[in-house]
Amino acid sequence: MSHHRVEARNLHFSYPDGQAAIQDISFTILHGEAVGIIGANGAGKSTLLMLLMGILFPDSGEIIVGDTRLTPKTLPMIRERLGMVFQDPDDQLFMTTVRDDVAFGPRNYHLDEQEVASRVREALAQVGILHLRDRAPFKLSGGEKRAAAIATVLSMKPDILIMDEPTSSLDPKSRRMVMELLKSFEHTKIITSHDLDMVLETCQRFLVIKEGSVAADGPAGEILKNPQLLHSCGLEMPLSLQKCPICGDQTKNFKSG
Amino acid sequence: MKDSLRDIRLLDDLARRQNPINKLHPLVKLLTTIIYLAVVVSFGRYEISALLPLIFYPVVVFALAELAPGRILRRIAWVMPLVIGIGIFNPVFDHQTVTIMNSTISKGWLSFISLVIKCVLTVAAGILLVATTGMEKLGAAMRIIGVPKIMVLQLLLTYRYILLLGDELARMLRAYSLRAPGHRGIKLAAWGSFAGSLLLRSFDRAQRVYAAMCLRGFKGDYNTGDDAKVGVRDLQFLIGWVAFFLITRSYNLPFLLGSFLTGVIGQ
Ligand SMILES: Nc1ncnc2c1ncn2[C@@H]1O[C@H](COP(=O)(O)OP(=O)(O)OP(=O)(O)O)[C@@H](O)[C@H]1O
Ligand SMILES: [Mg+2]
Questions:
Q1: d(Cα B219, Cα B215) in Å, to the nearest integer?
Q2: A93 part of a folded domain
Q3: How many domains does chain A have?
Q4: Which of A249, B57, B130, B136 has a CA that sits 20 to 30 A from residue B217's CA?
Q5: Which ligand 1 atom lies nearest to the CA of residue A15?
Q6: Domain for residue A132, yes or no?
Q7: Could you state, in order of their start, the residue ranges of all structural domains in chain B?
Q8: Which residues lie at CB < 5 A from ion ligand 2?
Q9: Measured between CA atoms, how close is B16 to chain A, in angstroms?
Q10: How many whole angstroms from A129 Cα to the centroid of ligand 2?
């Protein structure tokens, strides 16, 4: 199925103030692939996702979803298949109750009210906040907001799931829940994070971004074997791959550090 | 200050409760309010007694909607300085007098009082409408009576923007006060950069929120998912009140009542 393919060709983007955030990025993501986009703060991860969603338009280069080129005209069609969770959940929640917020997307696609209700229930149950459905989104805790923001996207049943730092500011249990959720999502997913353990567990392929360009692209195992690369991109080995310094299973890494 | 910021969301919270008024169809409430406003402002500028029965509408809705008077009254109080500012020149410029029940009253004062009453009634009716309906449903009702999409959208987004502005302001005040202990309010020197960055931040955020809405298929119509039909109770509410408004408009009820009573007593 080629229709869930995402392709970027020679993307360039500068913010209006002259900040060149994306410089010549190209990649192809195939159907069903789980790709982790990693990089230091300010590397351009969020900007790249916004380009993919058509919130920003590239100065040059193009984005192709399925067989369609992303243009203002094809935007509605493409957005129907992409679901994005923002870095800051406050940007995503704007209705007066969690339930209405999660229903907002499905209602815009004119599903009947019964279908909307069942999707809302399903999405809220998936992220484990069914009990918060009548609360006002702005009165939730940070982690609860995050879960609600994810539910707003799940209720639209996207073919391609895009998440910007989905596990930041979550407690271990919620983080685990989001990770399981990501693993259970079979379609294409694109995830950015500094939480390399999370990305390692949920994604097979890594795309390392450094100062707006692709520094490396390949299978997760290969990229994580290269500490120099990670270090030069402002990243660290995932904890799960470092040997435990407390239980005595020491490594060179620990002795020298 | 923080309290009033928290209160910005009050109307949204109120609109979500369950009670006889909130349950009415938004369209009916919108129409009743529009007719009410038209009737209130249609009274002459020296009219006072004939206006008085119209106070029944907000009072009854208020009671049925189980609202706490204090918070709503405070909102009405916000606009009072403005109204008084506009109306206070009436007594200054209008020196005509009339004689009512053997006492001489300045027409300027009459028109001032009439203006204040009208303002309180219209503002109260407006606030009650939002507090018992909610902005989104109100927008949907406006679409039904044919208000153009772009205007409704403008209104809804402006409303949301004010909420965001309040949110950002609350965050910035918190950040400011934590780093400036002991100050009350914001130092004059900091005002410029404070206001500027407040504007930019809220503008940025409004843009991101709007982008998030578009990503979820927003094309300019709020779907509240509540397409209940107008029922018998809704029609009763509408027809009942409109009849009352029209009667009030055509007959000076307090005057009739007064002459009826004096007539009865006089016999
Ligand atoms: N609205 C904006 N206007 C101007 N420059 C911006 C804007 N947003 C981001 N930038 C700049 O673009 C670059 C990339 O930012 P981006 O938000 O994509 O980084 P990121 O990789 O998501 O970082 P983080 O991990 O901190 O979320 C940064 O140098 C940033 O300063
Ligand atoms: Mg980011």
A1: 10
A2: no
A3: 1
A4: B130
A5: 4
A6: no
A7: 1-147+230-256, 148-219
A8: A 46, 87
A9: 8
A10: 25
